Amino acid sequence: MSGTINLARGWPSKESMRLVAPFLKRWSSDSLEQASKCGTGAETLLNYGAACPLMEKTFSSCLRDFMLRHGWGSSSIISAFNLVLTPGGSYGIDLCVRQSIADLGKRQIALVESPTYYLVEPILKDHNLEPFPIETDEHGIIPSALENTLNELNQKEKTVQLLYTIPNHQNPTSSVLLPNRRKEIVELSNKHDFYIVADEVYQCLSFDGYVAPESIATLGERVFSVNSFSKILSPGIRLGWIASKNKLTVSDGVHQSGGDICGFTAAIVQVGLENGEMDQILARTQQDLGERSSLLYNALSKALGDNE
């Protein structure tokens, strides 16, 4: 319907994507110009295992610096993370589910927050996993509810593969999982032998001075942090990454055959990571989100009444 704003979709605004376009044009133009000057530059950018021909630093090094600047964790932990490129967050979730099956064996249940991101359930069902809701409140998953559910499922001989969670700025509730709860949930994953797939695509999208907790993946080896540039740059570039203390091995064969996934796109984006323009884009995105949040809150308060 014309004039309707669909709040179910986590899409960037048309205006934000328009403003990003000139940056992507310049980054790609600079890289392709270097590739066109000499065979070495062309081979670097356009061959298997593509990399940026404009700099000696690797993409992973630039990405780790970005993660450090924007709150994923300490330098020592980020340096120890295993990073795997993906063509976006959804593909990252799928890879993590596959890894959990490879490591733990095929099980029956995938625990999810109630409510949760509405398009994750088809991904879980692709692997014949039954989504099972966990009670939440304004601070995210309730650890006692999670433990009760795990005990009940165990009594029914139902096996748990993983917990899918959105720890920061949860979709659709916007809750942020409290730090003490994160620790309890990771402890439960160790006790009950399941993996945690943390959808952290909103990790650095706080605004109005709020600082979100560090990635839940900093707390243990059973956690995979799924990330994406879709909310910062645009969904169309299809570039994301998984960060974990654990090793993600289910895509090793693909990497050996075809080189790094999304290598060309990563090489283009690396220009913005290194020259500081990605930080400028992120700051503008955070400001835009803050303004839109205020507009929405004020409009709803006016229409429905402010009950605070």
Distance between the termini: 32 Å
| Uncertain stretches | none
The largest pleated sheet is described as: 8 strands, mixed
Radius of gyration: 20 Å
Helix-strand makeup class: alpha/beta
Q: Largest sheet, order of strands side by side?
A: 1-8-7-6-5-2-3-4
* Average pLDDT metric: 93
The backbone outline, from C-alpha atoms, is: globular
- What is the chain-wise order of helices and strands? HHHHEHEHEEHEHEEEHHH
Provide the helix percentage: 40-55%
- Count helical runs: 11
Number of strands: 8
Query: What percentage of amino acids are in beta strands?
Result: 5-15%
Summarize this, please?
The chain is built from eleven helices and eight strands. It has 308 residues and is an alpha/beta fold.
Please describe the structure with a list of short key phrases separated by commas or semicolons.
8-stranded mixed beta sheet, 308 residues, alpha/beta
